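EI: anyone free to look at a 123-residue chain?
SC: sure, send it
EI:
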Amino acid sequence: MHKTRQFLPPMTSLTPGSYNLYSPRLRFIALPRGSLHVTGDFEALTRPILEAAISNAGKELDVRQEYIIVPMHELQIPHIQDKFKEATIYPEEFSVPARAQQSIRYFVCFVKLSNRRLDYSVY
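SC: here you go
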């Protein structure tokens, strides 16, 4: 999605009201480590979201060791499929609900850690 919320090919346009841009789902893809420039402890920071997705799916996620898992907005999947042939796109069952923030480009993901504690991450 372009920052003006214009959908660029291969993404299809949405009819107003057909999709809630404030409540997207985060999906997951895997890319070869050599395809990315990663700074910081990206994998540790995204691990709670990935664990929540695995919990939601109720089964393990097969990840090759030389790949990095990247969370992304579900509407970006067609673009990733078109532009990154080396990407592995995981099924929708491995996803988590999110709340879009600030111009609908940031996500807040809530992960329930225990009966009394709710943790969150901003992306």
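EI: The first strand starts at residue 25 and ends at 32.
SC: 👍
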